[in-house]
Amino acid sequence: MSAPVAHDAACIFCKIIKGEIPSFKLIETKYSFSFLDIQPTAEAHALVIPKFHGAKLHNVPDEYLADILPVTKKLAQATGLAIDSPEGVGYNVLQNNGRIAHQIVDHVHFHLIPKRDEKTGLVVGWPSVETDFDKLGQLHKELLAKIEAHQ
Ligand code: 5GP
Ligand code: ZN
Fold it and tell me: How far apart (Å, rounded) are the C-alpha atoms in residues 26 and 38?
């Protein structure tokens, strides 16, 4: 089995990490790089990416993933989003995997999207079904068996 590849010369986000393409850089650590999204849905919409080329979340080593949320938290705090009330400004952290799940750039990225009003930021909607405890119980059993087998 070949070793995971940390960089992809054709990847736009790898080029941003290397400085081959300019970006409005915010925070950089050993494992992560963050910068402003060039097509923001809200002011200060930022992206936090691992300094490791992986298309989807499961392609990225844990040490890179473990650094992403602390960086995201720091950005939220520094940009005035971290208020200790359920009311007022909020924010969403979004990470898409695959075209059907709205991923366009195939290098893992976490969106930090300020939610200040109804018009800007993430709009969330998903279909849901009525609670069915029998069905959930059966599914739970199946999933636990799969998780056990995966260890
Ligand atoms: P996705 O739909 O893949 O989760 O989101 C990709 C995001 O990357 C989009 O919000 C898009 O605006 C952003 N993006 C794409 N290309 C560039 C770029 O060259 N520079 C920056 N800063 N953001 C980019
Ligand atoms: Zn990449």
Answer: 13
| 74: its two tokens | 């720091």
Q: Please, what are the domains in the chain?
A: 12-124 (3.30.428.10)
Ligand 1: residue of 34, 47, 113 to mutate (most ligand atoms within 8 A of CB) is 47
Residue 3 predicted with pLDDT over 60: no
Q: Is there a contact between 92 and 122 (Cβ–Cβ < 8 Å)?
A: yes
Category of 102 on φ-ψ map: left (φ > 0), alpha (ψ -120 to 50) or beta: left
Q: Residue 15's pLDDT is what?
A: 98
Asked if residue 104 has its Cβ within 6 Å of ligand 1, the reply is: yes
Would you call 109 a catalytic residue per the annotation?
A: yes
Q: Is the pTM of this model over 0.90?
A: yes
Residue-level pLDDT at 7: 95
Question: What is the token pair recorded at 33?
Answer: 């790089």
* CA 54 to ligand 2 center in whole angstroms: 6
Query: For 119-143, what is each residue's pLDDT tens digit?
Result: 999 999 999 999 999 999 999 999 9
Burial degree of 30 (CB within 10 A; 0-12, 13-18, 19+): exposed
